[in-house]
Amino acid sequence: MTPRTAAAAPFAVLGLGCAIAGGLASAVIAPHPTPHGAWAVAYLVLVGGIAQLGLGIGQALLAPEPPASRLVFAQIAAWNLGNAAVLGGTLSDTTPLADIGGALLAVGLARLVLGVRGDSPDGRRRWVRHGFQALVVLLLVSIPAGLVLARIGPA
Q1: For the chain, what is the domain count?
Q2: Is the distance from CB of 74 to CB of 59 less than 8 angstroms?
Q3: Transmembrane region positions (predicted)?
Q4: Which of 15, 23, 98, 112 places its Cα 20 to 30 Å from the Cα of 139?
Q5: For residue 87, what are the domain limits?
Q6: In sequence order, which residues have a C-beta less than 8 Å from that of residue 63 and are 6 or more positions away?
Q7: DSSP-based helix, strand, coil % in the chain, nearest 5
């Protein structure tokens, strides 16, 4: 396993696990769907799954040097604990827990931006790296919006 593959692997495994969990949750709630249940399914698949997969692979490919395992662990911990807190807080109507989750997600995203900063020695992929960072910042900005929507609840 190359260092870049090793850096992406935890994101890929956990991201695919979240996407599968979302699919299983969808099957469970299908007979009696609720707004919170449908939201949780989408959140697991899109944020816990697809976003995590893209963030981890993007960082592994775009960082000037393969990310250190310590950094990857901190990012994985922040992202997954944050997602768990957002899900738990939203589903239990415990707003402070969702807020803590949002803060953990912000920490994880900030660490991802830092993980790809700098240029590769030959200047390759600079525009792709900037695009990745812009998408991470967009996700970062969307966290407060999501927390406000969680407070408002389904219409």
Answers
A1: 1
A2: no
A3: 37-62, 134-153
A4: 23
A5: 3-152
A6: 7, 115, 116, 118
A7: 80, 0, 20
